[in-house]
Amino acid sequence: MQARIEILQGDITKVKVDAIVNAANSSLMGGGGVDGAIHRAGGPAILADCRKIVAKQGGCKTGQAVITTAGDLPASYVIHTVGPVWHKGSQEEEIKLASCYIESLKLAVSHGCKTIAFPNISTGIYHFPKDKAAQISISSILNFLDKQPSIERVLLICFDAENYAYCTKELKKQEQNN
Ligand code: AR6
């Protein structure tokens, strides 16, 4: 059987899955990093959908997620989640990061998505330590997959070699403990 979670190195805007996840900010109005790359590659339809969400609910809180079209991207949807800014662990950042993965997966399920790709949320501009983030992302995804058979495949798309190394090591470790 194919593994339901896979770690790859690359650019998430190129990945053809039902939904890709964006590491956004609470304004949902775009930014740098993977957020900038997704809006650039997906075109203005994504921002137009984000504006509608902002008009309705006023943005997105840390640890929460919203869903939009993927515009010109090969994916069908973009799920925008807001990771925590790292404050040395003093503001429940670990719980908030886990929540990003769980809330995104719940939205994927409620929209009938079977395949989903995540970037390493919060490990860029928001400075979450990459080793801790790898542990949290993989344990959150594995726990969710255990209870939710409708998701067939989760890809963790690492942009940089350091995240890729931490994530592959962490996946091996957590699979051995299962
Ligand atoms: N594909 C996959 N991963 C990527 C890509 C890409 N094309 N580009 C960057 N990454 P970041 P954050 C990786 O900074 O830390 C934005 O301005 C990157 O190497 O994008 O959650 C938002 O608007 C890193 O490992 O997001 C927010 O203001 C990971 O994606 C803020 O940044 C996340 O880095 C969010 O900060």
TrEMBL record:
Listed CDD domains: Macro_OAADPr_deacetylase
Annotated ranges, domain Macro: 1-175
Protein name (record): O-acetyl-ADP-ribose deacetylase
InterPro entries in the record: Macro_dom, Macro_dom-like
Superkingdom per UniProt: Bacteria
